Recover the amino acids of this structure.
């Protein structure tokens, strides 16, 4: 564990919050040229894609406590480094939210409102209840981890991993923004809840529990699915055996 890895995770998570939540707070409903749900979804995907190229070689570009714990469950990340990574991600997320608040509050008549926080029930964009929100966050994070683990496998084209992961996060937002405003990331949820307070803090537990359960479950599932897959060096031998 190096300070550079923790700094990279903090910076990357700050960018995810600033770019993703910033698109929702500053641009989604802007008169005449608002980017809407599609634009916000693309913004979140692009933050991960760009940071994967920027810091992937330094820290692995987790940017998400659920991703870190999912990688631990899959046997792809040392458990002893998980807590420092998570702490760095939460700090980075709050830093990103603070920058966003500083920008947004400079507009005359600024009102904090929901500040892109995650919620369910009365605080869900579509009015979805606790059960729907929990299932959405669990399932979406689980599939996100499966894509991450598959795209970063030694048998997958390494140069395309950031693209697959970024597009997956875009798709997740397209599906689940109406349900919870899309978390799949406890650090992202915490960063906004710190500024909104009240209901956002009260409902924050769901956006830690459901994503982590989904990610850990996906990590264990991938570990089982990938168990008997041949290593790259064995691929030619397997092909010959199948033909013979």
């Amino acid at each position: 564990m190096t300070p550079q890895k923790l700094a990279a995770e903090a910076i990357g998570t700050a960018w995810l919050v600033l770019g993703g939540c910033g698109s929702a707070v500053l641009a989604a409903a802007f008169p005449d040229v608002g980017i809407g749900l599609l634009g916000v979804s693309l913004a979140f995907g692009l933050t991960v894609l760009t940071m994967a190229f920027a810091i992937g070689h330094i820290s692995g570009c987790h940017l998400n406590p659920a991703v870190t714990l999912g990688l631990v469950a899959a046997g792809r990340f040392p458990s002893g480094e998980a807590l420092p990574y998570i702490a760095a991600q939460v700090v980075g997320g709050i830093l990103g939210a603070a920058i966003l608040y500083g920008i947004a509050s400079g507009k005359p008549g600024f009102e904090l409102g929901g500040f892109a926080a995650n919620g369910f029930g009365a605080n869900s964009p579509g009015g979805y209840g606790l059960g729907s929100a929990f299932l959405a966050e669990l399932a979406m994070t689980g599939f996100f981890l499966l894509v991450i683990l598959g795209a970063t496998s030694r048998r997958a084209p390494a140069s395309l991993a950031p693209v697959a992961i970024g597009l997956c996060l875009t798709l997740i937002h397209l599906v689940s923004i109406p349900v919870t405003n899309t978390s799949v990331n406890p650090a992202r949820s915490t960063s906004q809840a710190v500024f909104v307070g009240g209901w956002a803090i009260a409902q924050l537990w769901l956006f830690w529990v459901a994503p982590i359960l989904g990610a850990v479950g996906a990590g264990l599932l991938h570990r089982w699915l990938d168990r008997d897959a041949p290593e790259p060096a064995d691929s030619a031998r397997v092909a010959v055996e199948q033909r013979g």
